[in-house]
Amino acid sequence: MAAAGGGGGGGGRATTSGCGLKRRYSPHDKEEETMNQDQSSKEDWCGRLWNGMDLLKDVTENKHVLPTGLEGIDTLLGGGLRQGQLTEVTGPSSSGKTQVCLHSASHVAVKHMGVVMYLDTSNSFSPSRIATIIDGTNDLSDQRGFDLPHKERLKTMMRSIVCKSVFDIFGMFEVLHQLEVSLLNDKVKSGGRKICLLIVDSISSLLAPIIGGKYPQGRSMMISVAMILKKLAYKHNLSVLVTNHMVSAGNGAVKPALGESWKAVPHVRLVISRVHGSNICTATVLKHTLLASGRTAKFVVPS
Amino acid sequence: MAAEAGRDPRAWLAVDETAAAFLSRLLSSRPPITLPPPLHRSPLRPGNVVEIAGPSNSGKSHLLLMAAVQCILPKEWEGIYFGGLGRAVMYLDLDCRFDVLRLAQILRNRIAEGCRSAHLRNGDPENDGTKDEFQCSLENTLFSDCMQRFLYARCCNSPEFISALKTVKSQSRREVSSAGIYFVMIDRHSIGAFYWIDRGSQPARENKGRTLQSITESVVHELRKLLQLQPALVLVTKAPIYGEGTTTANDFNRVSSKYILADSTGLGYSRQEEERTLSNREYMPSIWQSFVTHRINLQVEEAEVPSVLESEVLPVHTSEWVQPYLKTKGKFSIMDDGVSLIQ
Questions:
Q1: How many CB atoms lie within 10 A of CB A284?
Q2: Which of the four pLDDT bands, split at 50, 70 and 90, describes residue A43?
Q3: At what angle are helices A3-10 and A30-44 packed, to 10 degrees?
Q4: Lowest-pLDDT choice from A6-10, A68-72, A154-158, B193-197
Q5: CB-based contact, A131 to chain B, within 8 Å
Q6: How large is the ipTM?
Q7: Rounded-to-integer distance, Cα B48 and Cα B40, Å
Q8: Minimum CA–CA partner of B102 in chain A
Q9: Which of A46, A116, A274, B66 is the most exposed place for a label (fewest CB within 10 A)?
Q10: Strands in chain A per DSSP E
Q11: Chain B neighbours among A 269-288 (CB < 8 Å)?
């Protein structure tokens, strides 16, 4: 019955549903699966009650802050994108949202913080732009001290960015499910490089078409996706960055898309805007769990 | 029943206890609680269920955190008066939006403020800005003591929520020692999510029929059993739902702007009021509505309040008690470490 229930309950054990993944998340088949998993979910629950001090310890030890590489945004966010949280960047078109995503991905790659997974819905991922950004950073010297040629270093950095294209909501569910399964299987492996940042460029282009009045399941699917993303972020110490676009709010004003139900989903919301023709963008904090909202900062997107 | 009544009808009619004894027993086992403003206007006791409703960004989760801090702080510690309750808090997060750092921040600020005012009262002239090692370790012990009393669980969907409630109940049964759970807080801003998901499921397919109705019934059932076992104050947050068929604020504005040419502020205000009444449509099943004993609505006002720092203006929030109905609306604004009332 709950889409997230089918995914959340089935994440810990091998999925035995014979039907394909696409049908797995459709509203009609959810009920049978949650029926079977209801009994075992009760045992799952023992020991999931956390204590205040345990929570604090988990946050300080496991959930670090990933800087985006753009100074203004990092100051606004109190250091960068925090793992375990869902950050949303919204703004009118060509205001620099994709640039923020590409910069965060490159920064994580340059600093060898982990693997970045980039889910691209509108073919806006550009490897040449990533290469330009990586080249542009001053800190290209290899910390490990090996003397690799420039191209080799670039290759290893680019390899830590994984890009996948998704074009509809069912593809999104499939990708997220595969990610969840692979993360659970990887838990036994120690070392190696784990994914630490998940970027969904333009989640609104996936969700906006289904939210309208004609498709009744649309809103529940949006909330299911949101719950899956937040669960992934929390359990596997990922930082999730999504972008959203703007729609008109009457009287010439603009507001973020996806409506009121989406407002409660992200932990941190930023609005960015750019003066036409210049590189300087302004970012405003709409909502933050820790810091006051309403603060602005300017940042420059290097070309 | 008839046989027993026949045996000794007089015993059946005997007095159990007088009203005075009843009142004193109630006051000792379920004492009234004072919550930080703006929840302080109505007297609350364990066993009450308070529903805090309001649109996004109106300060509901902040109120829950304030009440949680109030509960986990001890009444008095090392001679410093904090005025807390010193009991445990159970926080059920259906939203997955809880930030423990925010709770830690508020708690630390409260502890620091308490220690500072105690020093001022004792008249320690040399301790204006500096804190010695002893002071810091004292504060840290108190901090960790309080955090131990904060219990947290997160749920991603309705079945998890119900099993979480069952676990809480069985765990509290095991813990016979004191400091039982005193507050239960349920952060269900996106209960709307569960609402849509549960509403979308088709009830005709199964015998058990997991509809919204049955889910809410099991939730209320579990909560009632928990409250019977251990009387606690339940605080629930709720967000308004925007239905598919109802007009949103946009459409309303667009339609009415055609007829209202002169922008008189009186009309503009009434339009805003209508938007708000539109959005506060009750969408939970009646079994939940009868379970809730108190209701308070929060809104964000557009007016600005000059604050200490010039660069920031703090938005003003209003609170309105719907049940029991109070005519006055309180105004408050959210600071870094708490809530300040504006009259």
A1: 16
A2: very low
A3: 50
A4: A6-10
A5: no
A6: 0.73
A7: 14
A8: A290
A9: A46
A10: 50-51, 65-66, 81-82, 86-90, 115-120, 161-165, 195-201, 239-244, 246-248, 254-256, 268-274, 280-287, 296-300
A11: 287
